[in-house]
Fold this protein.
Amino acid sequence: MTPPLLQRAALWRAASLGLWALVMLYSSVDGRLDLLLRAVFHPLVALAGLLLLLVALLQLRLAFGPGRQERGDRRQARTLLLTAAIALLVLLLPPAPSFADLAGQRPRDETAESELSFVLPPAQRSLTDWVRLLRSQPDPKLFAGDPVRISGFVLPMEGEPPQLARLLVRCCLADASPVGLPVAWPAGQAPFPADQWLAIDGVMGLGPAPGGGERLEVVPSRIRPIPRPARPLEP
């Protein structure tokens, strides 16, 4: 006996797969993947969404096609409802990760090259460029007085002032590693909250290192709060 249309298991599977195809395709165009995944992997998400959509259409054809129809049971119904609820939540609630919280739980990136093959002029270096350069040339006096124009988010540090930081990713947030630069924050200025994105113009100066000696720190001449960049993750 052919089950009623709404009790056909193929129709339920089509609805479930179609919802997740919609999630993956929508995420590929609305920018939310930029918060979670490097751009080079975005086409894979879109391709997976298209494949899911194709499978959903095949299931839909089975639901309305001739032949014996499989009747869905209560267990399948509960699974479909749970899957649909999760997919709708993903669509309605875009990700809003706290980079500062994530950075506080991740080890620092220590994979910088020992020698850089190309070095940009000081004012064109990003925060990540500066971190890598200082690791390859650890003498802080080499760069004292160089102009700095960088942006990043405020990262609280235990036992010292907050740093300006970025997250490096090889694939996605799951392998993110923070890098940061110390900042000589202006005296008397109210501290910026964690996760606040800032653009800082200034120069590199020498300051005391926590373990003794000297280290380079950014001496700001101008600090501007900015919105989070569209693509905040760096390779």
Notes: Residues 40 and 171 are 9 Å apart (CA to CA). The first strand starts at residue 147 and ends at 157.
